[in-house]
């Protein structure tokens, strides 16, 4: 099984094993080390120390001993779990773990995770109990692309009992996480109380649930294909969906398309109630200012289009920053990556402030124009206008710009780069 999984990894690129120190990952690393000796390939182990319990040091020590015995380089990432993220302990730990993975696993490399068939059954049940759709019921994919890397689960088709037998055959030692007996955690409750009870009545319960997850994954792939076709018919811009085109779809296909578009954009998908509110708002008056928000994302309706975008921090009116007009500047609302210099040459001391209202710029060959008019002429969406920064020099505004190089307008006597943008020309035709 491991040889087949290794054959699917890019030749010459590092294969990483996420090593917790438990039975599953210890076995996976042992099998991977043997496979990489048969078929030479660089192999690294990655241990994430969550620091959530006193036994964390023991887990790390075990991983070091195992890697030393196998001759596999070990990399340890310490993380801080955000207990206030609103994800629960398990969810927050998972977020921290994957963030650690992303720091180590490079583009084109492979990360192997040690989940097995019983884990898949638990994940399916958890998704069903949360009322998840087909994508949630698909549980964990055997392989997928992830941040430019390849993520795979070579043991996913094997039962925990099979892995235990294989580990004993290899004479393996592993550590058991004391928190695994805490049935206040949902997954532990399913593992220790629910699934054993189901297996008493239906001995193949875990296998059947994992099979249902595979069927859901196939259905999800077909639904994604349909959504991709619908998106292509509507212009293939996931961030900007025409309302007229949406209106020609059935309600079910609209739901699927919005979820698919969010997925394409890397945005969280809206919860069911938020999605229904959003779709109902698509029939609102065209002059209505529609905004529907959910954790990490929001939707806006503007100019007969539904815009999907990440949540934005509001401007802080008192914020200001001295800037030389050349150095990249990170702000809470995005990076200012525009070069702003006097046409006569040299640099100038500038002060950036949020737009207060009423500012105007004296443009070359156009005279004084207020920023509100310039924003309207450039078709800058209302939500982007809320993040406009104004550059001042000697008590007068000399430029207005949006972070991330979306749009800039400059006064006479000043020059903005990159892209050769002239006064009040947008860096992109549809900023925001």
Q: Tally of extended strands?
A: 21
Biggest pleated-sheet summary: 6 strands, mixed
**Name given to the CATH homologous superfamily of the largest domain:** HUPs
Remind me, CATH topology of the largest domain? Answer: Rossmann fold
Give a written overview of the molecule:
39% of the residues lie in helices and 22% in strands. The protein folds into three domains: 2-212, Rossmann fold; 234-310, Chorismate Mutase Domain, subunit A; 321-417, no CATH class. The strands form six sheets. A six-stranded mixed sheet has the order 3-2-1-4-6-5. Strands 11-15-18-19-20 form a five-stranded antiparallel sheet, with no helix packed on it. It has 14 helices and 21 strands. By secondary structure, the chain is an alpha+beta fold.
Strand and helix layout:
Layout: H1 2-7, E1 15-18, H2 23-38, E2 43-49, H3 56-70, E3 74-78, H4 88-104, E4 110-112, H5 117-129, H6 134-137, E5 143-146, E6 149-152, H7 160-169, H8 186-201, H9 205-233, E7 240-242, H10 243-247, H11 251-265, H12 272-281, E8 290-294, E9 297-302, E10 305-310, E11 321-323, E12 329-331, E13 334-336, E14 339-342, E15 350-354, E16 360-363, E17 367-370, H13 371-377, H14 382-385, E18 389-393, E19 396-402, E20 407-410, E21 414-417
Helix pairs in contact: 2-3, 2-7, 5-8, 5-9, 9-11
């Amino acid at each position: 099984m491991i040889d087949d999984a290794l054959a699917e990894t890019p030749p010459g690129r590092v294969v990483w094993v996420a090593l917790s120190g438990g039975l599953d990952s210890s076995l996976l690393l042992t099998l991977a080390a043997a496979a990489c000796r048969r078929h030479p390939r660089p192999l690294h182990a990655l241990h994430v120390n969550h620091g959530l319990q006193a036994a964390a040091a023991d887990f790390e020590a075990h991983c070091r001993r195992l890697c030393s015995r196998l001759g596999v380089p070990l990399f340890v990432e310490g993380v801080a779990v955000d207990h206030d993220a609103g994800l629960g302990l398990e969810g927050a730990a998972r977020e921290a773990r994957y963030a650690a993975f992303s720091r180590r696993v490079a583009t084109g490399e492979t990360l192997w995770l040690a989940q097995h068939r019983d884990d898949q059954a638990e994940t399916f049940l958890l998704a069903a109990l949360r009322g998840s759709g087909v994508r949630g019921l698909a549980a964990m994919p055997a392989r997928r692309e992830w941040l430019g890397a390849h993520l795979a689960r070579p043991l996913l088709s094997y039962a925990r009992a099979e892995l235990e037998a294989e580990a004993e055959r290899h004479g393996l030692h592993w550590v058991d996480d004391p928190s695994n007996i805490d049935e206040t955690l949902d997954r532990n409750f399913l593992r220790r109380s629910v699934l054993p009870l189901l297996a008493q009545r239906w001995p193949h319960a875990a296998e059947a649930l994992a099979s249902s997850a595979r069927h859901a994954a196939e259905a999800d792939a077909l639904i994604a294909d349909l959504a991709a076709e619908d998106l292509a018919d509507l212009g293939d811009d996931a961030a900007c969906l025409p309302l007229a085109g949406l209106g020609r779809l059935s309600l079910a296909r609209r739901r699927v398309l919005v979820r698919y578009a969010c997925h394409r954009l890397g945005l969280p998908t809206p919860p069911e109630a938020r999605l229904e509110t959003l779709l109902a708002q698509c029939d609102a008056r065209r002059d209505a200012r529609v905004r529907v928000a959910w954790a990490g994302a929001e939707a806006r309706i503007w100019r007969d289009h539904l815009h999907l975008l990440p949540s934005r921090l509001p401007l802080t009116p008192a914020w200001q920053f001295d800037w030389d007009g050349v150095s990249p500047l990170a702000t809470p609302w995005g990076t200012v990556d525009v070069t702003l210099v006097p046409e006569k040459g040299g640099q100038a001391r500038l002060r950036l402030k949020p737009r207060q209202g009423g500012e105007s710029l004296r443009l070359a060959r156009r005279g004084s124009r207020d920023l509100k008019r310039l924003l309207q002429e450039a078709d800058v969406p209302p939500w982007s206008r809320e993040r406009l920064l104004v550059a001042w020099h000697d008590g007068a505004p000399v430029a207005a710009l949006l972070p991330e190089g979306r749009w800039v307008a400059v006064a006479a006597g000043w020059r903005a780069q990159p892209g050769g943008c002239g006064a009040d020309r947008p860096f992109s035709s549809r900023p925001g």
